[in-house]
From TrEMBL:
Protein known as: Metallo-beta-lactamase domain-containing protein
Signal peptide: none
InterPro entries for the chain: Metallo-B-lactamas, RibonucZ/Hydroxyglut_hydro
Pfam families the record matches: Lactamase_B_2
Domain named Metallo-beta-lactamase: residues: 39-236
PANTHER family: HYDROLASE C777.06C-RELATED-RELATED, SLL1036 PROTEIN
């Protein structure tokens, strides 16, 4: 699998000079299977530039998976260029909880909020339920229910026996959790690496209990408990500057020399 970040910011996009290194776009992750099949995760604002890349790469069949339907994970969809081309075959996958993906996107793309409705888009668009154990282009996808307001799916991707997990918008230590901490440990165990929401520091978290996000230290604990040596933080808070994130990551790297610790950044690519 080839993996590339197109958006790593949480809640709202930012365009400040001091957020240039990690990027200002909201969540969008790109996976390309060994056979070349495109799998897009979430349609945050980062999906705009991914759309341009997919046009250049002449990808005709595109899959888009949605972890959940909060604004920062769907707001780029209307600017995803392939949806405006007749030749493109686009499969959209979302959980059928509270609302279907079709309804969620239709709410967003309705007048007077946006002039083009989902039903008039030229691409050949189909809607599917994102379910545990499904396979797209040779990549197996497993899901776990994250702890987040409304709902969010955590995802594991496996191809040729190698896995990574993507858990954005997840409160690992939530009281009244849907999913217990030990089940997240089990879910990521055996993965080559995992990407996890680390929107807060421990201090800020105390004032944001129940908001559905985790801290840098909680994510490190998860890596240690699951024995996964490589971890990337994502869903960076809109108020976090590059130097703020750098200081936290540098201190953790110094403290945990047995782990590979990084903050995900727009444009960063990983091969698995
Ligand atoms: Zn989010
Ligand atoms: Zn969310």
């Amino acid at each position: 699998m080839k993996i590339k970040f197109y958006g790593t910011r949480g809640s709202i996009a930012v365009a400040n000079k001091d957020a240039y290194k990690y990027g200002g776009n909201t969540t969008c992750l790109y996976i390309e299977s060994a056979s070349g099949e495109p799998i897009v995760i979430d349609a945050g604002t980062g999906i705009r530039s991914l759309g341009m890349h997919l046009l250049e790469a002449k990808k005709e069949k595109i899959n888009v998976l949605f972890t959940h339907y909060h604004w920062d994970h769907i707001q780029g969809f209307m600017f995803f260029a392939p949806i405006f081309l007749k030749s493109k075959i686009i499969s959209l996958y979302g959980a059928k909880r509270k609302m279907t993906i079709k309804k969620a996107l239709s709410y967003q793309m309705t007048r007077p909020f946006f002039p083009a409705e989902v039903s008039v888009l030229p691409a050949n668009i189909s809607f599917y339920v994102l379910s545990d154990g499904m396979n797209i282009g040779g990549v197996q996808i497993n899901t776990i229910a994250n702890n987040h307001p409304d709902f969010t799916l955590g995802l594991k991707f496996t191809e040729n026996g190698r896995s990574f997990c993507f858990l954005t918008d997840n409160e690992l230590m939530a009281k009244d959790a849907n999913t217990k901490y030990k089940d997240f440990v089990k879910f990521i165990k055996g993965s080559e690496f995992f990407i996890h929401d680390a929107q807060y520091t421990d201090d800020i978290y105390e004032k944001r209990l129940g908001w559905g996000h985790s801290t840098f230290n909680q994510v490190i604990k998860l890596a240690q408990d699951a024995g996964v040596k490589k971890v990337l933080f994502t869903h960076h808070d809109h108020g976090s500057t590059d130097s703020f994130i750098d200081n936290i990551v540098n201190a953790l790297v110094e403290k945990h020399k047995d782990l590979s610790i990084e903050a995900a950044a727009d444009g960063k690519a990983i091969e698995l």
